[in-house]
TrEMBL record:
<comment type="pathway">
    <text>Cofactor biosynthesis; NAD(+) biosynthesis; quinolinate from L-kynurenine: step 2/3.</text>
</comment>
<comment type="function">
    <text>Catalyzes the cleavage of L-kynurenine (L-Kyn) and L-3-hydroxykynurenine (L-3OHKyn) into anthranilic acid (AA) and 3-hydroxyanthranilic acid (3-OHAA), respectively.</text>
</comment>
<feature type="binding site">
    <location>
        <position position="223"/>
    </location>
    <ligand>
        <name>pyridoxal 5'-phosphate</name>
    </ligand>
</feature>
<feature type="binding site">
    <location>
        <position position="245"/>
    </location>
    <ligand>
        <name>pyridoxal 5'-phosphate</name>
    </ligand>
</feature>
<feature type="binding site">
    <location>
        <position position="275"/>
    </location>
    <ligand>
        <name>pyridoxal 5'-phosphate</name>
    </ligand>
</feature>
<protein>
    <recommendedName>
        <fullName>Kynureninase</fullName>
        <ecNumber>3.7.1.3</ecNumber>
    </recommendedName>
</protein>
<dbReference type="Pfam" id="PF22580">
    <property type="entry name" value="KYNU_C"/>
</dbReference>
<dbReference type="GO" id="GO:0030170">
    <property type="term" value="F:pyridoxal phosphate binding"/>
</dbReference>
<keyword id="KW-0663">Pyridoxal phosphate</keyword>
<dbReference type="GO" id="GO:0097053">
    <property type="term" value="P:L-kynurenine catabolic process"/>
</dbReference>
<feature type="modified residue" description="N6-(pyridoxal phosphate)lysine">
    <location>
        <position position="246"/>
    </location>
</feature>
<dbReference type="GO" id="GO:0043420">
    <property type="term" value="P:anthranilate metabolic process"/>
</dbReference>
<feature type="binding site">
    <location>
        <begin position="151"/>
        <end position="154"/>
    </location>
    <ligand>
        <name>pyridoxal 5'-phosphate</name>
    </ligand>
</feature>
<feature type="binding site">
    <location>
        <position position="112"/>
    </location>
    <ligand>
        <name>pyridoxal 5'-phosphate</name>
    </ligand>
</feature>
<keyword id="KW-0662">Pyridine nucleotide biosynthesis</keyword>
<feature type="binding site">
    <location>
        <position position="220"/>
    </location>
    <ligand>
        <name>pyridoxal 5'-phosphate</name>
    </ligand>
</feature>
<dbReference type="InterPro" id="IPR015424">
    <property type="entry name" value="PyrdxlP-dep_Trfase"/>
</dbReference>
Amino acid sequence: MSDRPLTHPGASGPGSAWAAAARLDAADPLAGRRRAFVLDDDTVYLDGNSLGALPAAVPGRLAEVIGREWGELRIRSWTESGWWTAPQRIGDRIAPLIGAAPGQVVVGDSTSVNVFKALVGAVRLAEADDTRGTASRGTVRDQILMDAGTFPTDGYIAESAARMTGRTLVPVPAGDLPSLAGPRTAAVLVNHVDYRTGELHGLAAVTAAAHAAGAPVVADLCHSAGALPVNVDALGVDFAVGCTYKYLNGGPGAPAYLYIRAEHQARFDSPLPGWNGHREPFAMTPDYRPAEGAVRGRVGTPDILSMLALEAALEVWDGVDIAEVRAKSLALTDYFLARVAALAPPGSLVPLTPAEHARRGSQISLRCDGTAAVMAELVRRGVVGDFREPDVLRFGFTPLYTGFTDTERAARTLAAVLREGTR
Ligand SMILES: *Cc1c(COP(=O)(O)O)cnc(C)c1O
C-alpha cells in the first residue's frame, strides 16, 4: 500500500474523468462482488458504514427459515436446523474477518451490551491478575481509559461499568492512550476507527502499551471489521466487540459479536451470566457454571431471524481477501478526496479524515456549512451518505459494492450542490 494519493483524472475535461473512473472499475478485482447485493444503478450508496446494503442471498434464506424451519419444523429447529449453536457458528464465520482463529467469537446482543460484557470482564480480569500478585505492589488499578471521541453508547456504558466496578472512567484523546496507560489502568476501551472523523487509531500501539502496564484492551471494531484487516489475534487484543449491520451487511439491528481471546476464556467472568452461557443450559440448575470457550459470552435466547439473515449475508465474504478490500478502500477514498478537492468550490469543504493511509478508516468525513440541507439535496440527487451534528458530512466506502464511477458521480454531485446552493 502506498501513501501516494491517486492523481485525479479529469485534467483534460469531464469526459476523460468518467473514462478514467471506468478504467479503474474495469481493472478492479472486486468489481464483480457488486452482483451479490441488491442495489439500483440510480443510487450511489455511501452509507454502508451505517447500514450495509442487502446481500442478494438473504431474502431467499429468510423465507426458508420462516417457512420451513419455523413454520414446519418449529421447536425441532433448535437442534435440527442448528439454531441453538448459531451464535458460535456464525462467530466462527466472522472470526477470519477480524483476524481471529476459530472458537473466540460469539454473535448475539447489541454492540452496546457487548461493550458492557467485555469491559466489566476486562476489569475483573485485571483485578484477578493483581490478586495473583502480578501487578506492581502498592498501586491500585482505579481507572478505565477510553478514547474521548468514542461513539456515545460506548462512553455511556463504560461510565456505568466504571461505577459498578468502583473505577473512574478517564476519557483521553485516542493518540494519548499509549502514553497514559499505566499502573492505575484497569482496562482500556478504544474505538478502532472514529465514527465521526473516520480516523483509524493505532490498535497495535494501544494494545502494546496497555499490556506493558498490565491492563487488558477492549477494541470496538464497528467501523473497521469488513473494511480493513484487523488482526486481533496477532495484536494480542484481549476483547473485541463490533456490530454486523455496517460493513458486514447483516441487516437493520443484526446481532453484534464479542471476541474473547482464547487465553482469557477460562477466566472470563461475565457480568451477564445468562443461561445460554451455562455449561449445561438444559440441566436448569440453580447455580451458574460457565461454559467453556467463547460460548460463555452468550446471555439469553438468540434472535434467530436476524442471526440467520446475518449468516446468509456473510456469504458475500467467501473468497474475499481483506487486504484487497483495504487496497480498494484506500483507492476509493483517495479518489474521492482528490475529486472533491478539484471540483468543489474552494474552502467549502474541510476533510476531517486523515490523508495518511495509516490513519484512515473507510469513510471520508467533510466539514461543511449547512450539512443537513446539503445531505438532503445529495440524497434527492441519488447520492446517499449521512451527517453527524453539527457540521460533518460522512461518506462510507464499501469496496464490495462501490466503484470508481460511483465515486466520480458522488464527487461531482456534491460539488454541484455546493455550487448551486440548497433551498
Ligand atoms: C454503530 C456503533 C455502535 C452501535 O451500537 P448498538 O448497540 O448496535 O446500537 C456502537 N459503537 C460504535 C463504535 C459504533 O460505531
